[in-house]
Amino acid sequence: MRSELLDVVPELLPELLELLFFGVATLGLSLLGVYIEGFALASVRSGDLMLGLWAGSIGVVALAFAYFTGTDKFAAKLRDLKRA
Questions:
Q1: Judging by beta carbons within 10 Å of its beta carbon (0-12, 13-18, 19+), is residue 70 exposed, middle or buried?
Q2: DSSP label at 76?
Q3: Residue/partner pairs of 41-45 with CB below 8 Å, 24 or more apart
Q4: Which pTM does this prediction carry?
Q5: Residue 26 CB-density burial (10 A; 0-12 exposed, 13-18 middle, 19+ buried)
């Protein structure tokens, strides 16, 4: 049993690292998007509407990338890894 597990780990290591990468990328993009949206809200509240709108659109793009990375890459890799 233990030797079988040790034989499987090297085969799955690249896929596990790829899954980890996409998970960290999704989390990082989500946090970045939320931070930028907070900055946009603070900019609008302080009276700088153009900067707030620009930052808000960049925050939406970051959150969209996080969503698509999580659903297209991370979830698909996790599903493939469960099948293996």
A1: middle
A2: H
A3: none
A4: 0.81
A5: buried
Residues 49, 41: contact at Cβ < 8 Å? no
Give residue-wise pLDDT tens across range 26-50. 999 999 999 999 999 999 999 999 9
Q: Is 34 helix (H, G, I), strand (E, B) or coil?
A: helix
Instruction: Give residue 52's identity as a one-letter amino acid code.
Output: G
Amino acid code (one letter) for 24: V
What CA–CA distance (Å, rounded) separates 75 from 23?
9
Q: What are the distances in angstroms from CA 47 to CA 17, 38, 41?
A: 45, 14, 10
CA–CA dist 70, 47 (Å, integer):
35
